[in-house]
Write a structure and sequence with these properties.
heterodimer; A: 296 residues; mainly alpha; B: 190 residues; Rna Polymerase Sigma Factor, Chain: A; Arc Repressor Mutant, subunit A
């Protein structure tokens, strides 16, 4: 049988066998996409404050990881118009409590998250088609999928927070979560809007534009992008980031009054935000909770 | 602006949109190649996924340093080799694996069509393992990866003539390998 081996036959057989299995290919692809998303978020972070900039970093990394997971899971969420008001902003780890390595995507470990994410994503998609943006029901959905993905059930306070924040005039404040165990749950938050393309990515790109503009010292452009985000993603997943960037943008460019108002509104709406130190540092005047709630 | 993690600030302005597709395109097109190169450099099958992934993460970070117009495969080879060489243990693994290599032999008992493919793959593997690394890489890049001699020369950083001479030597060895197989089959009729 093996008497006549031609080189092409040997080569074809070898090529066919000696390659990663389909599952391995997918795992690697998922890890790469996660890394790509992480990179895209890490290359344009908030401008560093005069001080205390470091506390923000793990927060941005966590956002990146969360976005990556969401992006991956959204493949399984085609068509789902999930209005859950929770997003990667919630996944931010409190930099005060986080370890330095947190939020960095570890490719092989990430794979499990991605799997869990897609799993819970499917469930969330089927669960959530009729859900409205009311924070109660979104809380329910998030809890539902959150439990499946990571067994995280520390979210009871969120609904109350949400209402309070909405009353404070900020678009779609994201419910607070405990600082730990966020990453695995990150991916079960589907995109808030899904008209075309991947809304989460679109939103990310817009946030990036803001950061780009801030980094390039183009405050006008940054504020325009912030307004665009506020219009297009009024209830998006990155509202918290947007509002943090708004404070940084306004305060950084001399619009002190508006900056301080935005800062106060931010601190009130996101009292435990990972960005709070950063936001406070942006406008050195202490932010007191009884300022105006207007975000302009 | 301080970058967050290790990514250099220099190539910051690229957007994820510009980056990710390029990265994923490279990945889809060359993942098998990187995998096989890693295997040839001594990475066992069970570790090849890690190494391959590592390579592409590296690609991701270094995408900006790729010189347009040069060979992607040559570039990928450089990254893979550096990663593998960096890991001394993989060298030890390679030595052990080569030392433990059995004689090339056909494996019996399977449906005919698959057994033949299976055997062919085994034989190719056995032949490649017989070659020294230099010839193996040239042979593999030529025959299996279908790279041009220029690409191979670029990847291995050797003159074109060296590529051809190694290829000639490897092909001669393949002939001898075939003869040996043939002789064995004659001795041991199925």
């Amino acid at each position: 049988m093996s008497d006549e081996w031609t080189t092409p036959e040997l080569v074809a057989a070898y090529r066919d066998r000696e390659r990663p299995a389909e599952a391995a290919r997918e795992r690697m692809a998922a890890a790469l996409m996660a890394a790509a998303a992480e990179r895209s978020a890490t290359v344009i972070p908030l401008r560093p404050p005069a001080r205390r900039g470091r506390t923000i970093r793990s927060g941005w990394l966590a956002v990146a990881a969360a976005l990556a997971l969401i992006g991956t899971s959204s493949y399984w969420l085609v068509g789902a118009r999930h209005q859950a008001a929770r997003g990667p902003a919630d996944m931010l780890m409190d930099p005060q409590r986080s370890e330095p390595a947190q939020g960095v995507v570890a490719p092989m470990a990430n794979e499990q998250h991605v799997r869990a994410a897609s799993d819970s994503g499917e469930r969330a998609a089927s669960d959530s088609s009729e859900q409205q943006a009311a924070s109660d029901s979104s809380e329910q959905a998030a809890r539902d999928s959150g439990e499946r993905a990571a067994g995280d059930s520390r979210e009871q306070q969120a609904a109350g927070d949400s209402r309070e924040q909405q009353a404070a005039g900020l678009a779609d404040p994201a419910p607070r979560r405990s600082a730990r165990d966020r990453r695995p749950v990150a991916a079960d938050h589907p995109p808030a809007r899904g008209e075309q393309g991947d809304p989460v990515l679109e939103e990310l790109m817009l946030i990036q534009r803001i950061k780009d503009a801030l980094d390039a010292d183009r405050p006008g452009e940054a504020l325009a992008a912030i307004e665009a985000h506020a219009r297009e993603f009024a209830r998006g997943s990155l509202v918290e980031e947007r509002e943090a960037l708004r404070v940084v943008g306004l305060c950084g460019t001399g619009e002190r009054e508006r900056g301080e108002r935005a800062q106060q509104a931010f601190v009130r709406a996101y009292p435990r935000s990972a960005y709070r130190e950063r936001v406070r540092a942006a406008c050195p005047v202490a932010a007191s909770p009884e300022g105006s709630a207007t975000i302009d | 602006m301080m970058p967050l993690a290790e990514p250099p600030a220099a190539d910051a302005p690229e957007s994820a949109e510009a980056r990710a597709p390029a990265l994923m395109e490279i990945y889809r097109a060359h993942v098998d190649y990187v995998w096989r190169i890693a295997r040839s450099l001594g990475i066992p099958a069970d570790a090849a996924e890690d190494v391959t992934q590592e390579v592409f993460l590296c690609v991701h970070h270094r995408l900006a340093t790729f010189r347009p117009g040069s060979s992607v495969r040559a570039w990928l080879f450089g990254i893979t080799r550096n990663l593998v060489l960096h890991d001394k243990r993989s060298y030890a693994r390679r030595e052990r694996r080569l030392a433990a290599l059995p004689e090339p032999q056909a494996t019996p008992r399977e449906p005919d069509a698959t057994v033949r493919v299976h055997q062919a793959a085994e034989l190719m593997q056995a032949f490649l393992d017989e070659l020294d690394l230099e010839k193996r890489l040239v042979f593999q890049m030529t025959e299996i990866e279908e790279m041009t001699a220029e690409e191979i020369a670029e990847a291995l950083a050797v003159p074109l003539g060296t590529v051809y001479s190694r290829l000639r030597a490897a092909r001669a060895k393949l002939e001898r390998f075939r003869l040996r197989l043939h002789a064995r089959d004659q001795r041991r009729p199925a």
